[in-house]
Design brief:
With 84 residues, this protein is of the alpha+beta class. Helix content is 29%, strand content 35%. It has 2 helices and 5 strands, in the order βαββαββ.
Amino acid sequence: MLISGDVTGVFFRSYIKEWALKLKLNGFVKNTNNNVEVVFEGESENLKKMLDICRKGPKFSKVENVASTEQEFKNEFKGFRIIP
């Protein structure tokens, strides 16, 4: 996913990690220019929930767009991390 809007400097990455752990999703989140990039692996139902969570964002964010693509499950991540 590539999430754009007012999403940097508002604890967006921490918010995403917290929810990813709750939903047992693996992957990573990182800032890229003025956007947030996220990669998730996990159960289909939890991925759908996470998409809705990303569209909302944390309290001080303003999500304008969430671009997402699905790929074949590769099981390449262990846990979920924030990339600085």
